[in-house]
Amino acid sequence: MEQQVVVDTKWVLEHLKDENVRIVEVDYDPNTSYYVWHVPSAVLIRWREDLRHPVLRDFIGPNDFEKLMESKGISNYTTVVLYGDYNNWFAVYAFWLFKAYGHNDVRIMNGGRTKWAKDNLPAEQGPKEPQYPKTTYKVNKIDWGSHRAFFWEVLQRLTKGDVGKSVILVDVRSPKEYTGEIRAPPEYADEQTQVGGHIPGAISFPWAQAVNQETGEFKPIDELRRLFQNAGVSPDKEIITYCRIGERAAHTWFVLKYLLGYPAVRVYDGSWAEWGNVVGAPVKKGTEP
Predict the structure, then answer these.
(1) Active-site option among 243, 245, 249, 259
(2) pTM
């Protein structure tokens, strides 16, 4: 890989005062994470309030992304290191958005909050966020095409019979979500869809298979490659990952694209929250694709 995309906690510890590096915690719920403790010098990006569009079910546009970067002291040339709550899900989701908006050097802290705590490294207590001099930031290119798959695209590929042939759909939710036994994971019990199940033809590959459960770190590359190949997720196919709202799908997308070097991987970020609520969308229940 040409550019380092994963750094360990030791690297972060050594770069806390580096003016060219910005450590960013990305949280779904900062009340139970950043506001309790965070990596020293880290700024906060709240996934719902800062990255989601205020009206549409979508992300903030390039102008608002630029303003957000400037407010956090991030320029186009800053090395951005992301970590966060919920197993780094939303940190990797933010990585996906940073890349779609063309940020050159963005990295993930391996293991996130879990690993930092296990290593017993220094932390700042409380909600106070450091302030950095305002920068100038410009989104120079937008690339949704190689990052994002939309509902109509997935439905079209399914209708044409491409799924399982030239296209591999990877459902990275828990097995009970895949079979339709539950419609949302326990973390999101209040966010149910109308129906449970999975997109017909989708392979079940729970995202957590890619990480060490004790530390939250990614498993070794050789092991990851073997796991995906054994599941039928091969690099010679177009891969589309999905989950419920896209955050776990982005985690698996990152593993496939940036750790394993798969050439064609996208996230269907509408995921089951969209598919499971669309009238007439094809649904399959049970353990079979």
Answers:
(1) 243
(2) 0.97
